Amino acid sequence: MIFSIARSARGSLLCLALFAAFVTQAQAQAVPAVGLAEFLSLVERNNPELEVARQQRAGAEAESQIASAYPNPEVEIGGGPWRSRVGAPDGSVTAFAVTQPIELPSVRAARIGAAAAGIESAGAQAQTVRLAIGFQARQSYYELLRRQEDERLARENVDLLRQIRDRVLKRVEVGEAPRFELVRADSEALAAQNALASSGLRVEEARASLRRLTANTLPPGFGVRSGEPDLAALPPLAELQARMAEAHPALRALAAERERAQRRLEQERALSAPQPALRFGDTRDPEVRSAMFGVTLSIPLWNRREGQIAQARAGIELASAQIEQQRVLLLRELDSAYARLSIAQRQIGTFEAGLLRSAEAGLQAAEAAYRFGERSFLEVLDAQRTLRVVRGDYNTVRFDRIAAWLDIERLRARDPFRLETQ
Question: Which of 20, 119, 142, 10 is nearest to 61 (CA)?
Fold first, then answer.
């Protein structure tokens, strides 16, 4: 019974080994690896969300041009039959009139100011999108690096377990170990192969995320170059908070929206006053020609724009509340990212201070003791499992630190498409 289980496990192990070899061969035939600078350049040129943000700013600039335009004159032309009351021959009468609305300076200035604030808001929103997409691209790039590193560790774990299984097989063949140890070794190797296959799928998922950010301009089998960013020293948290409040485009966009609402309030108040217009008219009939100059006024008798003024006031209050809400959210994100970065740095120090070396030394000691018959095979597996967990945790912490650092850089509103230390 045990022999049949072992044979089945070895068959599954062989299938997974062939699959892993196929994946490795396919990766070997992949296109050359893409660097971070090249990847960010592709994102900046091809990402559709960045293009949408740029077009929105162009629309806001066009709105400013509309706000600067003067009102057009109105032309009236009419005519009809004319009959005299004193026996003169019948004829026709024609009328011509031109009306030119006169825009009050207060109305025009408020409208142009609202359009200028709209341009500022659209520009800040475009920068917010640029920050989000740029740092999402960086996060995705390092996520793929992380998954590739996980795959490498999983492959090393498979190789290590294969070596352990070969030693167990020799001991079983000479009768120094029970066959159950071979079954256990085959099971552990099979689990390691499954983990390797899963890590390969996660690599493909991370790779697909990078392709989406570049609008699928990258080939399906591309790779990325290994390496970690140069994490510059950060100033104290209080200084970071002050800089973020000044520089973050999300806050500037909301401040511009508040200014826009204030200008709209000024415009509505100005529109509640009588709006003048100049009028010139000319009327001709067979007997008389008359010309008339005049001024027309819109009298705010029934509609004094109370609703529009109240709506503009509500827009100002809403924008102020949104600014405070956004500020609190950004401060919370900054505090969280700063704490995550500090924790990750301490954990990395612990790993590099000796935890990794201790786990590796423990496995070597367990293997040596097993060869001399001083330890059981289960202790070797425990030591190997401990090393695998320690390596995996160390890899996770390394990239968690990078993720926290990138979040802080995003909150500081650094340009994500520039790689040099600023």
Answer: 119
For residue range 66-93, list pLDDT tens digits in order. 888 888 999 999 888 877 776 667 778 8
Could you tell me the two tokens for 5?
Answer: 């289980």
Q: What count of Cα atoms within 13 Å lies in the side-chain half-sphere of residue 199?
A: 23
Written in H, E and C, the secondary structure of 244-293 is HHHHCHHHHHHHHHHHHHHHHHHHHHHHCCCEEEEEEEEEECCCCEEEEE
Q: In sequence order, what are the residues at sequence separation of 6 or more whose Cβ sits closer than 8 angstroms to the Cβ of residue 100?
A: 71, 73, 74, 277, 278, 279
Three-state SS string over 310-328 comes to: HHHHHHHHHHHHHHHHHHH
The CA-to-CA distance between both ends of the chain, in Å, stands at 67
- How many CA atoms within 13 Å lie on the side-chain side of 335? 6
DSSP state of 378: H
Taking the CA atoms of residue 70, residue 76, residue 77 and residue 79 in that order, the dihedral angle to the nearest 10 degrees is: -170
**pTM exceeding 0.70:** yes
